[in-house]
Amino acid sequence: MRNKNLNFKNNTMKAAVFYAPHLVKLEEINIPDIGPDEVLVKVKAALTCGTDRKTYLRGHHLFNPPFVFGHEFAGDIVEVGSKVKKIKPGMRVVAANSAPCNSCFYCKNGEHSLCDSLFIQLSGAFAEYIKIPGIIVSQNLLLFPEIVSYKEAAFLEPLSCVVHGVEESKINLGDTVVINGAGPIGLMFLQVVKLKGARVIITDMLEERLKLAIKLGAYKVINVSKVQNPVEEVKKLTEDKRGADVAIEAVGLPEVWEQTISMVRKGGMVNLFGGCKRGTKVSIDASLIHYSQINIKGVFHHTPGHVKRALNLICNKAIDIDSLITDEFPLSEISNVIELMLAHKGIKIAVIP
Ligand SMILES: [Zn+2]
Ligand SMILES: [Zn+2]
């Protein structure tokens, strides 16, 4: 039942609804009703993400259309279910898009990002209101102070993945780290890796992104579209051309995975962070693993611990987030947002309902 004290006009809201690949419509739909363990948030800022781009092009295996598009957001609580404790209307909140079950083998083993029933079902950020499911309310709905803007807070989910990725990369003080890809994820990696006391080489094909990487503190940048052999170029920038201590892939393409593996020194760490399409195969020179003892790992998603630490980074102003938001549009201009996203223009685009 809708709280009668709330003055929702006709109980409807504007929302960008996904119907099929290449078909997202701005519509007037019902404001979702909430259950006893749920909350309703008035979205104050939402952000585009690489996942939205992929979803727009090919759909999403977890969501059956029609569904409201977008998943990164921050806003104000407007309504809480009868069983929700400690959360009150008016609070500034941000939520991750998932929560682990806490009862499967992996959760009990402390590997929450591998949870057998990881609840990744939060979509609906490109709308005036979004309902947060109970399992997320209890684990991954966080409050943030007024010194943090809604746009900054909306970075929480991707930054949580990056915090997880950096932790698993086992970076030491003084290391040289190469990051392949200077999109939103790569540029967040750059900043968090620098907090670990490493110097960063970053590669991309887009000059505009590399310029931003320099502004954000990269030691060297390489435009891979302008060099013959990116692996050699990276090695040349390391002592005795031995390769980087840590190499991170933040693109999600098999050819870049293969290059990343060749960029580390003997005994180095390779973090293949960018997800490739299911069924993708990559080839690896087996001697790199045996004789060179390189370490290769993948890192997926985040856990409630990473989400909390990511929020601390945002609240401590440890990361330059404003520089990563390159455009801003009202929700009514969602078609412009999608166009820019498809053309890989800018880094993150803010959508303001
Ligand atoms: Zn995202
Ligand atoms: Zn689980």
Could you list some keywords that capture this structure?
353 residues, alpha/beta, Quinone Oxidoreductase, Chain A, domain 1, Rossmann fold, 2 domains, 7-stranded mixed beta sheet, 6-stranded parallel beta sheet, 28% helix, binds zinc ion
Number of strands: 16
Order of SSEs, N→C? EEEHEEEHEHEHHEHEHEHEHEHEHEHE
Helix content: 25-40%
- CATH class value of the largest domain: Alpha Beta
Distance N terminus to C terminus?
A: 24 Å
- Uncertain runs: none
How many structural units, i.e. domains? 2
The CATH architecture of the largest domain can be named as Alpha-Beta Complex
Largest sheet: 7 strands, mixed
Tell me the Rg in angstroms: 21 Å
- Specify the number of helices: 12
Here the CATH topology of the largest domain equals: Quinone Oxidoreductase, Chain A, domain 1
* Ligand identities: zinc ion
- Structural class of the helix and strand makeup? alpha/beta
Beta content: 25-35%
Shape estimate: globular
